[in-house]
Amino acid sequence: MSQGLSATAVKNLDRKGYLDIDIDPTLDLVAEIQRLKKEKNAIILAHYYQESDIQDIADYIGDSLGLSQKAAKTDADIIVFAGVHFMAETAKMLSPEKKVLLPDLKAGCSLADSCPPPLFRKFKEKHPDHVVVSYINCTAELKTLTDICCTSTNAVQIIESIPKEQPIIFAPDINLGRYLVKKTGRDMLLWNGSCMVHEIFSHEKITKLRMQYPEAELIAHPECEPHLLETADFIGSTTGLLNYTKRSAAKVFIVATEAGILHQMQKASPDKTFIPAPPENTCACNECPHMKRNTLEKLYACMEYELPEIILPQWIIDEGRACIDRMLEISAAAGLVSKD
Ligand code: 13P
Ligand code: SF4
Hints:
The protein has a four-stranded parallel sheet, with helices on both faces. The chain has a four-stranded parallel sheet with strand order 6-5-7-8. By secondary structure, the chain is of the alpha/beta class. The chain has helices spanning about 5-15, 30-40, 50-55, 65-75, 85-95, 110-115, 115-125, 140-145, 155-160, 175-185, 205-210, 225-230, 240-245, 260-270, 295-305, 315-335; strands at about 40-45, 60, 80, 100, 130-135, 150, 170, 190, 215-220, 235, 250-255, 275.
């Protein structure tokens, strides 16, 4: 589908990670994307951390579990993943016969990067009696070294599905790992990885905000550090946090996760106030720079030219898929199925 593309744009794709083409500034991108969706039988799956304009045009917005479940059962010919690389890889592993597009291949993840598969393989070899549970925020190659995947929605149920006497390695997020140790009482071996966004929140500034808004509830994602989680009124995945804000009687929330989720929170509860938990410095560090690499322009270009595409070696799909299937089975048995 690269007809009409300049040779330079194709040549630059690897280096830039996206199709850097001139787009007519008068083009109605939203209308064009809607047209392409219909013409190509494409589905746009977007994570809550995407820019609001991308969330608004998506067919499905969700957390990592919901997005995987949707990718596994869609009958679209093309999955356009408005998220980061490991999410699009997961979609490709679940639906290998489909074309999976990611608007910007350089939309990575600091957490996935913190667990390089060759290092992890050596670590695993030292503990051959351990079962490996990996957070879905890891590379496709790491999934080939994993027994069961999990997301922040189902992590407790996944750990509890493993017999008590069975030792466990948990990778790559140490904060989620510590949270799970506390929650399940299981003593797991933890890999020392973390997310750059969820470790940036300022304890001091949050304390000041709580003094300013004594009625506010602090809600946090389990990728946050233990000292923050200890003071949170509610801890949950992005979907868990969103649902909590809908049912809670509180009117003000300090939200300790990536700020993109505020768009859906505000839409669902227009009468409530949502304050993004402030980062330690004055940058926009509570926004994920990887998630935010995707733009409406890149989304349009990738749908028009069907590039860049996620291509995985067959052995990765063959060896990496079982841990995701296992996760989906356990989630379904626990009733953790996205309703949309
Ligand atoms: P969830 O979507 O599972 O809440 O995870 C958040 C996240 O960090 C995704 O990158
Ligand atoms: Fe990765 Fe953190 Fe960004 Fe999620 S928010 S994609 S875990 S860097």
